[in-house]
């Protein structure tokens, strides 16, 4: 009897040990951001803090990036498994080289590019920019789309005076009158507004998506090797990530707190303001029509046509449907 | 005798003694005044008071995390470059052939802008410490090689002749004559390298990092927190200055005889 007790005890100990080691051995995933932590990058932090990844038995490590192509390179070389980056950058890269990365989930279904002007500048529409000085940052993906959006508004690049400057200097340049307009992502709107308020000025954004440039932008991309070798992990990750996106935009204040907890340098209020100001990039007419999380072939084709034109590529350089892998979309 | 005279000379003496500090304080006061009176907004040139406020707004433990990340990479890169530079210089000093083979290669490495190569190194070695240490090492080791080799070659020929006539083995010639003669040169190389080590670590952090003072500065500008970026920058220069001084203290402590004689 005593020995039986002992055996049961030992067996249960062993069982709990196995259980605990399997809990410890959660699947590790390295997530690649395409820029430094900020409001639009909140979902992955939210997923960790809210336990969405832990629920799927995933342990997620976040690596910051320095632009879309940097993020792509890191996913292609296997330093990261999955991450957020511009699908346009992926299309351009795949059209020119055999980059083993595919898009698995749309995030921004509208382009985040925009012009910003001061309210008292008298500039009301893109056509008013004729003859004006416009500042942009050297490496932003917006630059490639600029000729297209100008063309759609009856302008050419010769009609404007384009200068390039450090991203951090753009809004101060405009506030001090060194430039009439700037080009930046609408993810910056909350920051720019706060900065302009400090100088007693008001800023207006003119999103390019309102002026005909309607395409997929920031998306969840994954390395092909990750999808092939660990399809189950990928599936669980994407499910948890979709949940994280939903949560972040539903509770932007909580998302801000979550991000601040992991990256104390970021203010929770700024994150929540950023999230609120870009909700329409994630939830809009496109997502209403197609459903959240679905790439449609028609819009992928349209996106590729814009990307090809913007990068000077021929349309047959890429079959855009090969850029997407929809097998992992959560049900 | 007039009592005011010694007092006057005392003031003069003290003013002279604290001249660098007074100059620095004057500069900061002037900076603050320009910002306050000229109403210069913080995002163009933050005032010293705004920078100090920004400095204390960041938790002390965060500063330490970033400081440790940068310092760790800088010192590892620095030590690695000493480990590479010293044997390399001895080899190049001893063998004419090695000198002819290696020198052009070293110049090529030195004249390649590391900022441009850094992203490639990250792709090759990953985003962790090894790639950052290598980037730091690439920036720091050249001045060390040059100064060490120069130092060893400038040993008085009489000393070498004497050692040869006494049939001293070559390792003794190197260790007991050439290296001691090269110590002042080595230390001037070390002083240049240690400040470059910080630059190297920051360059590496600009390309890929999740913490560190370089990352912190980049991060602050991305959120348009210019006073905070300045605070990081000033913290970084203070660290650089302290490291530079530490190399000097080490020289005073270990090799007091190698210092130039005071007049």
TrEMBL record, chain B:
<keyword id="KW-0472">Membrane</keyword>
<feature type="transmembrane region" description="Helical">
    <location>
        <begin position="65"/>
        <end position="89"/>
    </location>
</feature>
<keyword id="KW-1133">Transmembrane helix</keyword>
<keyword id="KW-0812">Transmembrane</keyword>
<dbReference type="GO" id="GO:0005886">
    <property type="term" value="C:plasma membrane"/>
</dbReference>
<dbReference type="GO" id="GO:0055085">
    <property type="term" value="P:transmembrane transport"/>
</dbReference>
<dbReference type="Pfam" id="PF00528">
    <property type="entry name" value="BPD_transp_1"/>
</dbReference>
<dbReference type="InterPro" id="IPR035906">
    <property type="entry name" value="MetI-like_sf"/>
</dbReference>
<feature type="transmembrane region" description="Helical">
    <location>
        <begin position="101"/>
        <end position="127"/>
    </location>
</feature>
<keyword id="KW-0813">Transport</keyword>
<comment type="similarity">
    <text>Belongs to the binding-protein-dependent transport system permease family.</text>
</comment>
<protein>
    <submittedName>
        <fullName>ABC transporter permease</fullName>
    </submittedName>
</protein>
<feature type="transmembrane region" description="Helical">
    <location>
        <begin position="229"/>
        <end position="255"/>
    </location>
</feature>
<dbReference type="InterPro" id="IPR000515">
    <property type="entry name" value="MetI-like"/>
</dbReference>
<feature type="domain" description="ABC transmembrane type-1">
    <location>
        <begin position="67"/>
        <end position="247"/>
    </location>
</feature>
<feature type="transmembrane region" description="Helical">
    <location>
        <begin position="21"/>
        <end position="45"/>
    </location>
</feature>
<keyword id="KW-1003">Cell membrane</keyword>
<feature type="transmembrane region" description="Helical">
    <location>
        <begin position="188"/>
        <end position="209"/>
    </location>
</feature>
């Amino acid at each position: 009897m005593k020995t039986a007790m002992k055996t049961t005890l030992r067996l249960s100990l062993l069982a709990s040990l196995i259980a605990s080691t399997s809990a410890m051995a959660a699947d590790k995933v390295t997530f690649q951001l395409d820029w430094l932590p900020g409001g639009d990058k909140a979902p992955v932090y939210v997923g960790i803090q809210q336990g969405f990844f832990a629920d799927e038995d995933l342990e997620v490590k976040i690596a910051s990036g320095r632009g879309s192509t940097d993020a792509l390179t890191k996913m292609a070389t296997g330093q990261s498994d999955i991450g957020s980056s511009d699908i346009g950058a992926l299309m351009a890269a795949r059209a020119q080289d055999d980059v083993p990365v595919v898009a698995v989930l749309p995030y921004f279904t509208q382009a985040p590019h925009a012009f910003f002007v001061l309210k008292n500048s008298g500039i009301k529409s893109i056509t008013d920019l004729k003859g004006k000085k416009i500042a942009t940052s050297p490496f932003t993906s917006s630059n490639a789309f600029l000729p297209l959006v100008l063309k759609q508004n009856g302008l050419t690049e010769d009609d404007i005076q384009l200068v390039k400057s450090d991203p951090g200097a753009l809004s101060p340049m405009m506030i001090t009158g060194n430039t009439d307009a700037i080009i930046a992502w609408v993810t910056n709107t909350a920051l720019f507004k706060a900065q302009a308020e400090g100088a007693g000025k008001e800023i207006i954004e003119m999103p390019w998506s309102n002026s005909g440039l309607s395409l997929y932008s920031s998306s969840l991309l994954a390395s092909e090797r990750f999808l092939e070798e660990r399809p189950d992990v990928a599936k669980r990750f994407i499910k948890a990530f979709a949940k994280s996106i939903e949560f972040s935009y539903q509770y932007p204040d909580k998302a801000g707190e979550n991000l601040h907890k992991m990256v104390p340098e970021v203010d929770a209020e700024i994150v929540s303001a950023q999230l609120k100001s870009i909700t329409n990039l994630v939830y809009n007419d496109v997502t209403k029509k197609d459903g959240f999380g679905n790439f449609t072939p028609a819009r992928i084709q349209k996106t590729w046509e814009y990307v090809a034109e913007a990068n000077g590529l021929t349309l047959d350089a890429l079959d855009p449907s090969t850029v997407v892998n929809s097998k992992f979309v959560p049900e | 005798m007039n009592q005011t005279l010694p007092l006057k000379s005392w003031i003069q003496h003290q003013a002279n003694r604290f001249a660098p500090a007074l100059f620095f304080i004057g500069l900061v006061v002037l900076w603050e005044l320009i910002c306050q009176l000229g109403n210069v907004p913080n995002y163009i040139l933050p005032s010293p008071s705004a920078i100090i406020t920004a400095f204390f707004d960041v938790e002390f433990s965060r500063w330490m995390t970033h400081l440790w990340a940068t310092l760790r990479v800088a010192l590892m890169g620095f030590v690695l470059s000493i480990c590479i530079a010293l044997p390399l210089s001895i080899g190049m000093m001893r063998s004419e052939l090695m000198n002819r083979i290696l020198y052009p290669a070293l110049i090529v490495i030195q004249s390649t802008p590391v900022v441009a190569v850094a992203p490639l190194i990250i792709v090759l070695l990953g985003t962790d410490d090894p790639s950052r240490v290598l980037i730091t090492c690439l920036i720091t080791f050249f001045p060390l090689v040059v100064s060490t080799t120069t130092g060893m070659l400038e040993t008085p020929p009489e000393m070498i002749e004497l050692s040869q006539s006494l049939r001293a083995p070559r390792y003794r010639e190197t260790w007991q004559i050439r290296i001691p003669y090269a110590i002042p040169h080595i230390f001037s190389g070390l002083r240049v390298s240690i400040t470059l080590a910080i630059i190297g670590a920051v360059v590496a952090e600009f390309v890929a990092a999740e913490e560190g003072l370089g990352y912190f500065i980049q991060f602050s500008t991305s959120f348009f927190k210019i006073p905070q970026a300045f605070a990081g920058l000033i913290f970084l220069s203070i660290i650089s200055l302290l490291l530079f001084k530490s190399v000097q203290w080490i020289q005073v402590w270990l090799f007091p005889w190698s210092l130039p004689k005071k007049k």
